[in-house]
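Subject: for your reference before the review

Hello V.,

The reviewers asked for a structural picture of the protein, and I figured it would be easier to keep everything in one thread rather than splitting it across files. Below is the amino acid sequence we used in the manuscript, unchanged from the supplementary table.
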Amino acid sequence: MDAKNWFTAVLAVPGAHRGRATMLAADAVGYSRLMQQDQEGTHARMTALRHDVTDPEVAAHGGVVLKNTGDGFLAIFATVPEGIRCAASLQRRWEAANDGEPPGRRISFRIGLNVADVILQDHDVYGDGVNTAARLQTYAEPGGIVVSDAIAAELDDALRGGLRDLGDLHLRNLGKATRAFALSGGALAADQAGDAVPGTESAASIVVLPFREQAAAPGDSYFGEGIVDDIIHGLSGLKELFVISRGSTLGYRDAAVDVRAIGRDLGVRYVLHGGIRRGGNRLRIRTELCQAEAGEIVYSDQHDGVLEDIFDLQEQIAAKVVRNIAPHVQERERLRAMRKHPQNMTSYDLLLQALGPLFRMDYQSFSLAQGLLQRAIVHDPTYAPAYSYAAYWHLLRVGQGWSADPGDDAAEAERKSAAAIRLDANDALALAINGHVHSYLKRDFATAVEMQDRAVDAGPSCAMAWTLSSVTRGFLGEGAEAVRRAARGLKLSPLGPHLAYHQHILSQAHYVNGDFDEAVLWGRRAFKEGERLTSNLRCLAAALVAIGEVEEARQVCGRLMAHDPRFHLAAFARQTPLPPALRDPFVARLRQAGVPD
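And here is what came back from the structure prediction:
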């Protein structure tokens, strides 16, 4: 039988038939959001695309659509060239169909392609190769195509020249890693938040500045600064919004509010700022939402209540923001993103007091934060954020080199983050920290990936969730994905006390991905922000050796040994979760830079 047509001949024949085929899996980006926004209109447009574009193109390239899932489909082709040409043609025609549509209504697709031996039976296809194609499409940018190494091996020279190596991807529910390549131009969609289509993120990006407390007693300004944390948390849990982290806003607490400058500095469209006045048990919160580029006020508002109403007032503020900049978000989704209220106001007040010293990152303030968090837990053992920030404290203590017993601090970080997750399964920070402990200490990467993917899903704008998940992907050798996640974390936290850490992890991700020049670039930037960050000094030194800058690497290692005199390579080689293929050259480069064995 002609190999080109073997599957078309057997699809209608009863029984199982084996052969080699190319699978194309496609999925619509942001389908759930589009359906919530306009169910009837979205269904009609998807149906039209299927009948006018998808089905005719697949047939024209000799393929067969085997499954339609509403938001996507699976097609099969006899040869790789037919599948590739069809994928490229589909993306061009789908993009043309978006002409004239506003950004929030555009329908874009991701495509994954794989070639493998399969079983055809009863107009369906079976085999791991099918699952691989379906998983690969989740790594494609909107309007892009990701292919397996098996597909790449059969491409002609012209197409192979346009491939971008994504490294070995550990696809969900598949036993071994799959080498993958992006076929479309441009980088991975590092700027895409959740299911947002191109253009929607920039229209719904926001920073919430610390609220200024009027006539506050000395030492009481923490209240006005701290209550925005829950507002940020609620907004960060929505995939439709891009929310700058709290740490990046602290530098603006004492400065005059220049919304245009803030918008340029942080790359956001909207700025929410305000003030708070307390009189006895009474509260008055004034808020102002501004469009940053034009400096225009979208609205000004006033919220009055008593201290016990603070959580309702926070929800009212967040809800009004959402109604103005992301009006299609359904109420149940918004409420899901809000934190559970504490049972004890003293616990809440202690947590707010702890946030300031926790983020200052000097040892005296840092120690004060621990006592406040511990007291918050004692006053309300059911308040999840107190546990998650306490877990964060232990993690930071190890990272800063302030821990006398890193193993004990890591175990405590795991215990407290697990307690936070039991109390609130949507606590993104707790999920991210718990995953990092499983990754860094336990080498349980499957659990780490699961926890950190849950963290990103629960808090799409939680910078630490993206950055810590980059660390895990680096340990797995997934360089391109580590870079994508680290870049996302840095974009969400472009300023503030943790900037050096986010820059360092991006440097480390580039090192894992084999881009040593970029690793040096970001390592140097991280050094300027925080020269005591010893993990950055190690990575920067290794990257410098890799590009031939041995003398600078020796200087960096001199600082490393000054900050951590007990560091030596034998212990590092035993402790690091890096796989041997990355660990051994890393250790050799540090040895060349002067680190003792």
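For the response letter, the relevant points are probably these. Confidence is low (pLDDT under 50) at residues 185-203, 327-338. The two ends are 64 Å apart (CA to CA).

Happy to draft the paragraph if you're swamped.

O.
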